[in-house]
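Input:
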Amino acid sequence: MTTREQIREAALRVLGEIAPEADLGALDPAAPLRETLDLDSMDFLNFVVGLLEEIGIDVPESEYGQLSSLGACIEYLAARSASGPGA
Amino acid sequence: MPSLGADMESGTLLEWHVKPGDVVHRGDIVARVDTEKAEIEVEIFHDGVVEELLVTPGTKVPVGTPLARLRAAEGAVVAPAARPEAPAPPPRAVTAPPPAPPPPAAAAAPLALRRLRVSPVARRIAEERGIDLAGITGTGPDGAITRADVERAAAAPVTAAAPAAPAALVASVTAPAAPAPPAPTLAPAAARAAERARAMRRTIGAAMARSKREIPHYYLSMRLDLSHALRWLEAENARRPAPQRILPAALLLRATALALREVPELNGFFRDDAFQPSEAVHLGVAVALRPAGLVAPALHDADRLSLDALMAALRDLVQRARSGVLRSSELGEATITVTSLGDTGADLVYGVIHPPQVAMVGFGRVHEEPWAENGGVGARPVVTASLAADHRASDGHRGGLFLAALARLLLHPEAL
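Output:
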């Protein structure tokens, strides 16, 4: 079980490695992630890999749509985390 | 100073990864060099012991300048980063080499394992705080040094490893009297980044102007049906954990490499008034940099890599291109360039050939379009592939065959 705050920190840490020039402190949680941070498909794959490494949740490709914004990421990952490991 | 591309005239030594007395092996990364386009990790082509460093960090020197003296295992002295045709070493050294520590591994260690993997943020923080990355043990993927590792190192009491070499070397270049500041070696990182951005724009401009002046381009394009390829990829990726997933870009590169075998007139160099085809297919992969800029390092022997190996190599290459650390062998060796605009870009690219190459392959945005086939129309994911090619080396008929081969190969993704 990972808290929303832990998920938020982990997601921002991963994004910070991918887009070091971005001001993540000012990132609107509702803003579309890919457009706002100019993430291409390789960046996005690295984001998903980073989430797996940081919080142990592997987001399947079919659910990438759930990671559309920082806020959506946190909700989705918190729900996955609450439903237990391996879910 | 090795030549890291046809348009490179000089380079600035940024940092040594070795010091006199160090034992080095062919393929080791011995120095970091700044060219106008990127920071490059210079590989050494010989086994031996570093005898003397001839160029101090911060110094800009012309291509061909020896950077260091190396005592080869048997006593010969050669300049690193010279190609292997060095003088044959005498059979035995008269004076035995100093009792150096035993070489780390038995044979030449594989490059990938010896390279310092550092995330861009970690590199920046380390630079700001004057921390030597070589002294840090990475805990990230594949032993990469992450921001957390650097921050831990910054918090830890100073260890013996950290300060020594770079500061001492810098001291000898900076003004005689003033003691060198202990930490940052060169101009502040931000100023350097801005200067690099300007220099990169100049370099790209010079190469592209030469291309447009000298190369009689012709252009072709073809829409490719990606429904089979993407369906196959989706099923494949659904079975794989994230780190093993394959991007459509890897599939397109793989198909390009195979199609080039069928139309070799597009793969090679135009030099001395003649086309010189290349046996090997080294795909230059155009990588957009943050916040701006472009570099096209070579994905070596792309036609011989399995799709999985190609994807792994691509991920590694893009990551290093973006963190500004490419290897010397990756520049100037591409035999053709491929640019992929990704899924948020334009539909079609008219490429500008990078001389002395003779072709540039472009892929636009993948998107759904009406597609007519067998008397019916349906929506399919489509990408427009384009070819800009040099009329001195090929003509539109052969170019068209290349695009047709791409279309055919992508209809059978399982065979890629």
